[in-house]
Amino acid sequence: MASYKLMVKDVIKKADVLLEVIDARFPDETRNSEVERDITRANKPFIIVINKCDLVSKETLEKTKSRLSKIAPTIFVSNKEKFGTTLLRHKILEIAGIKGREILVGSIGYPNTGKSSVINGVSGRHSARTSPISGYTRGVQLVDAGSRIMFIDTPGVIPFGENDEYIQGLLGVKDATHLQDKIGVAMRIIGKLCAENKTVLESLYHVTIEGQDSYDAILLIGKECNFLKKKGEIDEERAAMKIINDWQKGLLV
């Protein structure tokens, strides 16, 4: 914990502009208010980069942008759809307000929010290594993005707390086999989908969810998938694992 704080402070100190990369599906859970306060105290401009925007509806994105743009300039990015990186480049140059030298840009965020992918998108080439495996970027590295933009690419930087298994499952940092509370994570996924996009949940599993809570929905899906134990009881853990795996594969979008 102490080492990550020192690294964040060092990146904030050296950078001219900071990017806080968050996951479009979980904007509030992947923001870090403490880091944002440190950036503000250092009087450094920062941009909130809402990554993986292709995994969220346009309506949800606009609501998120409406809230977060009051805190800092907000840019949507999808590396899969090759969207938003040119706008992000222009925004970096605009808010830096620096002429005659390179602009150092620090990227900060939780593991698996896609920091290196955002850097690659702005750079237009695979300068920074990317991987869905948390912690792949080892140590701090500088990435030349052209147009006087130089990224300070960092490892995960913001670590998860001991009690953040749910968000690790939701972000795909841990796959279903490595989660202790598989049912709890699956319930979070179902709760989110029922609130925002119940149709995709019902369509994928051929079920109708009307008034059931998240746990009952897991049982309903388990029954439809014929996940049964020897005595005919529904295998709730197997159903939960399928929901988590489908979520992490991007099927529940």
Which characteristics define this entry?
Rossmann fold, 43% helix, alpha/beta, single chain, 253 residues, nucleotide-binding, 14% strand, 6-stranded mixed sheet, GTP-binding, Conserved Hypothetical Protein Ylqf, Chain: A, domain 2
Description:
This protein is α/β, with parallel strands linked by helices and 253 residues long. It folds into two domains: 2-153, Rossmann fold, CATH 3.40.50; 165-248, Conserved Hypothetical Protein Ylqf, Chain: A, domain 2. The chain is 43% helix and 14% strand. The chain has ten helices and six strands, in the order αβαβαβαβαββααααα. The chain has helices at residues 2-14, 33-41, 58-68, 85-96, 115-123, 165-171, 182-196, 198-205, 214-224, 236-248; strands at 17-23, 46-51, 74-77, 103-109, 141-146, 149-153. It has a six-stranded mixed sheet, sandwiched between helices. Helix 3 (58-68) links the parallel strand 2 (46-51) and strand 3 (74-77). Helix 6 (165-171) packs across helix 7, helix 7 packs across helix 9 and helix 7 (182-196) packs across helix 10. The radius of gyration is 20 Å and the shape is elongated. This is GTPase. Keywords: GTP-binding, Nucleotide-binding. It comes from Candidatus Methanoperedens nitratireducens.
